[in-house]
Amino acid sequence: MFCRSVSNRTVLLLILSAIALLTVLTGCGGGGGGGAAAPTYSISGAVSGDAPAGVTINLTGAATASTTTGADGTFTFTGRANGTYTVTPVKAGNVFNPVSLVVVVSGANVTNTNFTATATAASTYSLSGTVSGVVQAGVMITLSGDATGTAVTDASGNYSFPGLVNGSYTVMPSRTGYVFTPVNLAVTISGVNSAGNNFTSEPVPEPTYKLSGNVSGAIAAGVTIQLTGTATLSTTTDAGGNYEFSALHNGNYTVIPNKEGYTFNPASTAVTVNGADQTGKNFVATKIPGKYTVSGTVSGDILGGVTITLSGGASASTTTNASGNYSFSNVAEGSLCTVTPSAPGYTFTPGSRNVTVTGDITVGDFAAVAKPSATWKEYVLMTSASAAGWRRRTLKFSDDNPAILFAASSCLDSSSSTTCPAAGSLTWTTSSGVIAESGASADSSVHMTMTSTGNFIAGTGNVGSSSALRVSLKVLPGTVYSSADIQSKSFVFHELIVGSATKWRYGSGATDGARVVTIASQIEPSGPTTPDSWGTLNVDAAGVVTISGIPTFSGFLADDKKTIVGTYTSGTTYRLMILQITMRSDYPVGPLPASIWKSSILAKSTNIPFVGVQAGWIHCTNTVDSGGNMTFGADWTSNNSLFSSNRPTTAFTGSITSSGEVTMTGSSYNGQASDDWNFLIGTMTLEVTGGSVYLLQISTR
After folding, report:
1. Rounded to an integer, what distance in angstroms lies between the CA atom of residue 381 and that of residue 568?
2. Percentage of the chain exceeding pLDDT 90
3. 2 membership: H or E segment, kind and range
4. Are 624 and 699 in contact (CB under 8 A)?
5. Residue 226, Cβ neighbours under 10 Å: how many?
């Protein structure tokens, strides 16, 4: 008995020692490491209603546990780590609202996880389903209707609400960053479980924006707009030039317009879409001029070797082939060009043709006529510091040798002399486009140039001790003149006046059906003056022009019926006048077109301090660039040292109107282009210290 008793106490001590040792080991880490335990929290709540006590509370999700409500209906789960849990109450003969609740433990205890119990004898059922798609787990499912509750899908996307009585319910999934199809489901439970209440998940669509703009200018509709960068797209502008790209995500893009035959400004534009629509990305279109061919033929007395010059909007030169054909390629669309034929010893009808290049163009034919002889109507104005006068005569050159004078007639000068040069006493020799005069009756230092049409000559020289400006019009055999040539015509005139007064004059006027002249404007260096009374303009069958109100005037009407040149005396002044009939209104408006001109100038000054009255001629080359800027070439030559040492070194900027009037900025120059665009007539004043120089300038090309 004693021995058995000792034995039992021993066993009891051994058991207590083991328990104590186990307790010590557990408190020291239980065989694990020595780190601090992660913090934990509690989930608590209460059940109220018909059966608050003894309700089983199931915990699922981040951990699984179960507890039972106390007599007061409360419950607590302790030691819960951070995570998402579902709390579900269960008790036979009762239903609960909500059916279950999802709670999230995140660094704090969760309280008020409350339910209401309702006693029922009715059967209960479950409502379940699955979420599929880009996300399955962790989707919150909210139950509403005859009961409420929340649940979270498991790793496979499954969810379930148990303990539901017959009734109408709605389930709706939700998770930040996702949308679901359908958005929710209406479910009716009627005596059976409801399964298959499924949803499909997708990411919430990223917001998108619009990018828009407009194309204007030479073309608007039908322009291809390419978009590159974060997305690559293409669209086409509508009739108003508008375009739009929609559904664009934030990002960097480049917009590029494209249409064959056009350039755009800007060529492209970079756009950053960042949370807003982008508008006003606009472009301006400019048409790229097309390239076309201008061609034509020469017929008549010469076919091959005729020089064809293209001027105006394009500059080029070529020669006809043996059949008289010629062509210019790569002429820009929209060019306003003049086509002019030329060959020594020949004239051409017409002298030139104007064309506007809108496509390949065949220019009308030019008819060539050999020039075995030529007759010229010559008009000369002469002046020196103390003398002045004019001369006019008809010069016919030899048939056998067109350079030598054959006969002269109708000779008259301002001193009433009718002496003509003898046959053979004048020779005109052409070299490098310049006509020189020699022979026993020749003037000295003669320098003349002819238009490419071969019917107009202008030049300078000395007649005795006087400086002279010469103009000659070619007499074309067979030309028929009548009063109709000068009736109901508009005209402009330019003249230089020397003698007892020195000045220039220009103006405009018109004739009526009876050839009565009305002068509309008359301008002198001092400004507008009262117009003279001209009376009636007359022409005879030989082309000689007279003016009834100016008895001493005699001139000649050119064969194209567009130019009259004449001289006359008024009191003690002597005058050379060029009158141009202006019926065209299609000259290229804007800067004076690029070209090279040969200019002949007669100049006379007022009394200048220390140097007195100065007179002289000047001839030079004027070059006009594409901007209308006219410069005076280094070949500037004058018989007056004061003039020769004062060549203008800055350009004059010229412009032309639709009627052919030419002006130069920064100067008093006023001029008129000829009808065939091959000569310019103009007057101008050059201001010098203490005086003025008045001049008449004639330019040929």
Report:
1. 10
2. 80
3. helix 2-27
4. no
5. 14
**What is the arithmetic mean of pLDDT over 512-527?**
96
To which H or E segment does residue 551 belong?
Answer: strand 550-557
Q: Answer yes or no: do 278 and 298 share one domain.
A: no
Asked if residues 533 and 524 have their Cβ atoms less than 8 Å apart, the reply is no
Better pLDDT: 476 or 320:
320
**Cα dihedral 192/194/196/199 (nearest 10):** 170
pLDDT single digits (tens) 620-673? 999 999 999 999 999 999 999 988 888 888 899 999 999 999 999 988 999 999
CA distances 636 to 133, 471, 619, 645, Å, are 92, 20, 6, 9
Q: What whole-number distance in Å separates Cα of residue 122 and Cα of residue 336?
A: 102
Domain-located, residue 22: no
Taking phi first (over 0 means left), then psi (-120 to 50 degrees means alpha), and beta for anything else, what does residue 12 get?
alpha
How far apart (Å, rounded) are the C-alpha atoms in residues 89 and 113?
A: 11
The answer, yes or no, to whether residue 370 has pLDDT greater than 70, is no
Last residue of a domain, one of 370, 403, 430: 370
Tell me: pLDDT of 597 over 60. Answer: yes
Is the domain of 218 the same as that of 267?
yes
Q: What is the pLDDT of residue 126?
A: 95
What CATH number does the domain containing 266 carry?
Answer: 2.60.40.10
- Whole-angstrom distance, CA of residue 4 vs CA of residue 574: 172
Give the SS3 label for residue 306: coil
In angstroms, the CA 339 to CA 294 distance is 9
From first CA to last CA, the distance across the chain in angstroms is 157
Say if 30 falls within a structural domain.
no
Residue 18 has pLDDT above 50, yes or no: no
Return the HEC string of 206-250: CCCEEEEEEEEECCCCCCEEEEEECCCEEEECCCCCEEEEEEECC
Q: Is the pLDDT reported for residue 20 higher than 50?
A: no
For 8-59, the three-class secondary structure string (H helix, E strand, C coil) is HHHHHHHHHHHHHHHHHHHHCCCCCCCCCCCCCEEEEEEEEECCCCCCEEEE
Burial tier of 173 (Cβ tally within 10 Å: 0-12, 13-18, 19+): buried
The CA–CA distances, whole Å, from 207 to 134, 247, 249, 251, 430 equal 19, 8, 7, 12, 83
Whether 396 and 423 have beta carbons less than 8 Å apart is answered as no
Q: What is the pLDDT of residue 289?
A: 85
pTM: 0.51
> Is there a cis peptide before residue 350, judged by omega within 30 degrees of 0?
yes
Alpha-carbon distance of 347 to 353, in angstroms, equals 14
Mean pLDDT for all residues in the chain: 91
Environment class of residue 272 by beta-carbon count within 10 Å: exposed (0-12), middle (13-18) or buried (19+)? exposed
- 235 domain-assigned: yes
Residue with tokens 């005569």: 393
Residue 304: count other Cβ atoms within 10 Å of its Cβ: 13
* CA angle 250–252–255, rounded 5-degree value: 115
Rg of the chain taking only CA atoms, in angstroms? 55
Check residue 403 and give its pLDDT.
81
Residue 19 belongs to a domain: no
Query: How much is the pLDDT for 13?
Result: 37
Whether 166 and 196 share a structural domain? yes
Question: Could you check whether the bond before residue 266 is cis, i.e. omega within 30 degrees of 0?
Answer: yes
Q: How confident is the model at residue 369 (pLDDT cuts 50, 70, 90)?
A: confident
pLDDT band at residue 512 under the 50/70/90 scheme: very high
Residue 548 has pLDDT above 60, yes or no: yes
pLDDT attached to residue 371 = 61
| Whole-angstrom distance, CA of residue 379 vs CA of residue 611 | 30
